[in-house]
């Protein structure tokens, strides 16, 4: 089973890197870009566990390790069934 | 009295800190390897600056999970003195011993320069030899020093006088220019509620000898030594 986890800064936290990317896009003439938020993607390969078990451990490790809940939020999806 | 300096892969101020404690302050000092479970009976643990684990994932995050840090956590929860400098501060935040988190510096630049910090709380084991309002000139060297916490947490740490140092100008004025990394409340040094765990971004070990351009960092080590003596 393959799982993709997306970690990004919470909406309440300023993202200067995203702002800089947005400004660059504007410089290039892409003025329709209203906002850019930058994040991280993790792809995890899991084996020997059920979907139900995965649903339990993925939020757990995202909260404990992959994201810092003080500043970041996460979402995830199964991208390859095992 | 004995100091312990924790060494992670990627620490690069461990020897500077060891040198300052041993050669300048003449203290018994031991290195503590992150993979061990032994604090070697030290009285104060110092998490030095550097780039533990190459700053992978988030600065300080991987180091916070190392075996020795579980001992350090217990040591801190029992009242032991812990000082985190720069990356050490980031590790203390990731470990949850201090509230909040570090964001990338506001202007997205690695900052390596002398700054001025103002003593806000001189009633801690790490600052009691200084005067409230005293200005210290100490260098910083970091990419992720932009302190962030939720508005509720900020209220809480202000109420408990947990802000020990603030970035200021040479005259002690707080302003945007002096707050070089964009930290909330110009926070440069933060202590836990119990008052035994301090994290600070400036490097006092790099300001402990005239030769280094400032001796203002001495007051932090001298405070700890006086407290433990």
Characteristic key phrases:
heterodimer, A: 82 residues, alpha+beta, Mth169, Chain: A, 3-stranded antiparallel sheet, 2 helices, 29% strand, elongated, B: 229 residues, alpha/beta, Rossmann fold, 9-stranded mixed sheet, 11 strands, 26% strand, globular
SSE diagram, text form:
The complex is a heterodimer of chains A (82) and B (229).
Chain A: E1 2-9, H1 16-27, E2 39-45, H2 51-66, E3 72-80
Antiparallel strand pairs in A: 1-2, 1-3
Chain B: E1 2-7, H1 14-24, E2 28-33, E3 44-47, H2 67-77, E4 81-85, H3 87-95, E5 101-103, E6 111-119, E7 135-142, E8 146-148, H4 151-159, E9 163-168, E10 187-191, E11 197-200, H5 218-228
Parallel strand pairs in B: 1-2, 1-3, 3-4, 4-11
Antiparallel strand pairs in B: 5-8, 6-7, 6-9, 9-10, 10-11
Describe it for me?
- The complex is a heterodimer of chains A (82) and B (229).
- Helices cover 34% and strands 29% of the residues of chain A.
- Chain A has 82 residues and is α+β, with helices and mostly antiparallel strands.
- Chain A has a single domain, classed as Phosphoribosylformylglycinamidine synthase subunit PurS (Mth169, Chain: A).
- Chain A has a 3-stranded antiparallel sheet, covered by helices on one side.
- The longest helix of chain A is centred in the C-terminal third of the chain and has 16 residues.
- Chain A is elongated.
- The mean pLDDT of chain A is 96.
- With 229 residues, chain B is α/β, with parallel strands linked by helices.
- Chain B has a single domain, classed as Rossmann fold (3-Layer(aba) Sandwich), CATH 3.40.50.
- Helix content of chain B is 22%, strand content 26%.
- Chain B has 5 helices and 11 strands.
- Chain B has a 9-stranded mixed sheet, with helices on both faces.
């Amino acid at each position: 089973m393959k799982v993709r986890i997306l970690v990004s800064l919470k909406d309440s936290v300023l993202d200067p890197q995203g702002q800089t990317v947005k400004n660059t896009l504007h410089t290039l003439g892409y003025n329709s870009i209203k906002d850019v938020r930058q994040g991280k993607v993790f792809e995890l390969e899991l084996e020997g566990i059920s979907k139900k078990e995965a649903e339990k451990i993925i939020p757990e490790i995202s909260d404990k390790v992959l994201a810092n809940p003080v500043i970041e939020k996460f979402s995830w999806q199964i991208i390859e069934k095992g | 009295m004995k100091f312990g300096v924790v060494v992670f892969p990627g620490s690069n101020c461990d020897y500077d800190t060891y040198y300052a404690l041993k050669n300048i302050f003449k203290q018994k000092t031991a290195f503590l390897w992150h993979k061990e479970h032994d604090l070697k009976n030290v009285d104060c643990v110092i998490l030095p600056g550097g780039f533990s684990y190459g700053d992978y994932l988030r600065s300080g995050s991987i180091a916070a999970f190392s075996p020795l840090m579980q001992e350090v956590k217990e040591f801190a929860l029992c009242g032991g003195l812990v000082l985190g400098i720069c990356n050490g501060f980031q590790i203390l935040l990731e470990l949850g011993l201090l509230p909040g988190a570090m964001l990338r510096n506001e202007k997205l630049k690695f900052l390596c320069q002398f700054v001025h910090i103002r003593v806000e709380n001189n009633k801690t084991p790490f600052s009691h030899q200084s005067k409230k309002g005293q200005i210290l000139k100490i260098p910083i060297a970091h990419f992720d020093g932009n302190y962030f916490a939720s508005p509720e947490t900020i209220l809480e740490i202000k109420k408990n006088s947990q802000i020990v140092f603030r970035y200021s100008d040479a005259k002690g004025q707080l302003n945007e220019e002096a707050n070089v990394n964009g930290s909330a409340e110009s926070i440069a040094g933060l202590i836990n509620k119990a008052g035994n765990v301090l994290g600070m971004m400036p490097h006092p070990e790099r300001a402990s000898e005239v030769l280094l351009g400032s001796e203002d960092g001495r007051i932090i080590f001298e405070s700890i030594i006086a407290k433990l003596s």
